[in-house]
Automatic annotation (TrEMBL):
PANTHER family: HISTIDINE--TRNA LIGASE, MITOCHONDRIAL-RELATED (PTHR43707:SF1), HISTIDYL-TRNA SYNTHETASE (PTHR43707). This is Histidine--tRNA ligase. Homodimer. Its main location: cytoplasm. It is found in: Cytoplasm. Its EC number is 6.1.1.21. Pfam families: HGTP_anticodon (PF03129), tRNA-synt_His (PF13393).
Length: 449
C-alpha cells in the first residue's frame, strides 16, 4: 500500500525557482540599501521567552491572545516562535548591555516569523520580514530617515509606483490622553452600534477601535474625532518636522488620520506603505515611533523608531510588475573525448569557477547529450574541449544564442566568453581581471617613483 503523499504544514510553503529568486532579491536589495543608510544587521533567535512578546505586543492584542505559537519546552519554560522582530531587537539591545553606549543603534534584520492566522495570498503562518530599527534617537529626523530608507528600497526593487506612503501622528502622552478621552466620549454615545470586540475595547483601549476592520465600526470611525485636534504644540511641531524632512528626502506621502497604534509606548509618527495591486488595499510596509518598548524589556528610556515589511508581499509586487530576477546563465563545459578530455574539462571548469564564472558540466553523456543538457539549463555559451584542443592548449567557445563559435587559447577563455555576451558572470570576471591589472600597473609605477 502506497504511503500518503506528505505536504507542507498548513500555512507554510516552499520557496523554489522564480519565487525564491524574488524572495532573495527583496532581502538582498533591502540589505544593500540599509547599509547605505548606516544600518548594521542583527540576527536574533527565532524563539524567545514568551514574556518578550507579551510585553512588547500587549496581552490584549490579537497576536498575543490568538496568533502566537507558544509552547512549554522540556525545562518547563514558556517559549514563543517570534511573531515579529521589533521586540526581539529591543530585548537584544538590553540583554547585550548596549543601552548606554554608541546610541543610536541602527539595526537591519531579515528572517522568518510565525503567526497562527488564516492563510491567504501573500500571508502565511510562517512568513518572512525585513525591518529596520533606530534605537536611541528622539529626533524627528530619525523618523524621516527610516521612512526614506523604506521608500528607497521600494525604488530599487522597482515597485515604488505601486505603493503609497500614508502617515499620521499619535502625538505625545498628553495628546493621546486628550484624544483617548474624546474617543471614549464619542464611541460611548454610539456604543450599541459598535461590534462586540470594540465594545470590549471601549474603556480599555479605544484607539484600537479606530483600526477595526469590522464594517459596523468603520462607519462610526469615519465620523470619529481625529488626534490632530488634540495635539500639544510640541507634538504638532514634531509632526511638521517629519513631514518637512520627508519632502527634503523626496518621499511623496499623504496623511491618513486613521492610522493608529493601540499600545501606550507608541508615540508620534505612524506610517504605512499601502498598495491595491494585490487585490484589496493592503499594507506592504509599516511602522512608527515607539518610545517605551526598550523599557518594557527592562532597559532605560530609549526612544526608537522603525518599520517591518513582508517579504512575501513585496515579492508578489515584483511578480505583478514582471520584475522577477533572471537566473544566472551558466557556461557549459563539454569534454569531447575520453578520460583525458574529461580531466582537462574539469580543470577548466574549476578554474572558471575560481574566477567567478558560473559554470556547469554534465556528469555523463556523449557530445550530443551534453549539448542537449547545455540547452536545458539555458547555458549562454559552451566550452568544448577535445583531443585536438587539449594538444594545442585551446578551447572551442560556442555562443549558444547566436550559434557561432571560435577557437581561442585557454588563457584568453574568459575574454572570449565575455565577448559572446552570453555570460554576464564572465563579463564581471573580465572586468575584475582588468581592474586587478590596472592596480598592479599602478603599484609598479609607485615603486618606480
Amino acid at each position: 500500500m502506497a504511503q500518503a503523499l506528505l505536504q507542507p504544514a498548513r500555512g507554510t510553503h516552499d520557496l523554489i525557482g522564480e519565487e525564491y529568486r524574488r524572495h532573495l532579491h527583496v532581502i538582498e536589495t533591502a540589505r544593500r540599501v540599509a547599509t547605505l543608510y548606516g544600518f548594521e544587521e542583527w540576527a536574533t533567535p527565532i524563539f524567545e521567552d514568551t514574556r518578550v512578546f507579551a510585553r512588547g505586543l500587549g496581552d490584549t492584542s490579537d497576536v498575543v491572545s490568538k496568533e502566537m505559537y507558544s509552547f512549554e519546552d522540556r525545562g518547563g519554560e514558556s517559549i514563543t516562535l517570534r511573531p515579529e522582530n521589533t521586540a526581539g531587537v529591543c530585548r537584544a539591545l538590553v540583554s547585550n548591555g548596549l543601552t548606554q553606549a554608541n546610541l543610536p543603534r541602527k539595526v537591519f534584520y531579515a528572517g522568518p516569523m510565525f503567526r497562527y492566522e488564516r492563510p491567504q495570498k501573500g500571508r502565511y503562518r510562517q512568513f518572512h520580514q525585513i525591518g529596520i530599527e533606530v534605537l536611541g534617537a528622539a529626533e524627528p529626523l530619525a523618523d524621516a530617515e527610516v521612512i526614506a530608507c523604506g521608500w528607497h528600497i521600494q525604488q530599487e526593487l522597482g515597485i515604488d509606483e505601486g505603493t503609497v506612503l500614508e502617515i499620521n501622528t499619535l502625538g505625545d502622552a498628553a495628546s493621546r490622553d486628550a484624544y483617548r478621552a474624546a474617543l471614549i466620549a464619542y464611541f460611548t454615545a454610539h456604543k450599541d452600534q459598535l461590534s462586540e470586540d470594540s465594545q470590549a475595547r471601549l474603556e480599555k483601549n479605544p484607539l484600537r477601535i479606530v483600526d477595526s476592520k469590522d464594517p459596523r465600526d468603520k462607519a462610526l470611525v469615519a465620523e470619529a474625532p481625529t488626534i490632530h485636534d488634540h495635539l500639544t504644540p510640541e507634538a504638532a511641531e514634531f509632526y511638521a518636522a517629519v513631514k518637512s524632512y520627508l519632502t527634503i528626502f523626496g518621499v511623496p506621502f499623504r496623511e491618513n488620520p486613521r492610522i493608529v497604534r493601540g499600545l501606550d509606548y507608541y508615540s508620534h509618527t505612524a506610517f504605512e506603505f499601502v498598495t491595491d495591486r494585490l487585490g484589496a488595499q493592503g499594507t506592504v510596509m509599516g511602522g512608527g515611533r515607539y518610545n517605551g518598548l526598550v523599557e518594557e524589556m527592562g532597559g532605560p528610556p530609549t526612544p526608537s523608531v522603525g518599520w517591518a515589511a513582508g517579504v512575501e508581499r513585496l515579492s508578489l509586487l515584483l511578480e505583478a510588475a514582471e520584475l522577477t530576477p533572471e537566473a544566472p546563465r551558466p557556461v557549459a563545459i563539454i569534454p569531447a573525448g575520453g578520460d583525458t578530455a574529461e580531466a582537462a574539462a574539469l580543470s577548466v571548469l574549476q578554474a572558471l569557477r575560481e574566477r567567478g564564472v558560473v559554470a556547469e558540466i554534465a556528469y555523463k553523456g556523449n557530445l550530443k547529450r551534453r549539448m542537449e543538457r547545455a540547452n536545458r539549463i539555458k547555458a549562454g555559451a559552451a566550452v568544448i574541449l577535445g583531443e585536438a584542443e587539449i594538444a594545442a592548449g585551446t578551447a572551442t567557445v560556442r555562443n549558444l544564442d547566436a550559434g557561432t563559435q571560435e577557437t581561442v587559447p585557454l588563457e584568453e577563455l574568459i575574454r572570449a566568453l565575455a565577448a559572446t555576451g552570453a555570460s554576464e558572470s564572465a563579463m564581471q570576471a573580465l572586468m575584475a581581471e582588468m581592474l586587478e591589472a590596472e592596480e598592479d600597473a599602478g603599484d609598479e609605477g609607485d615603486e618606480e617613483r
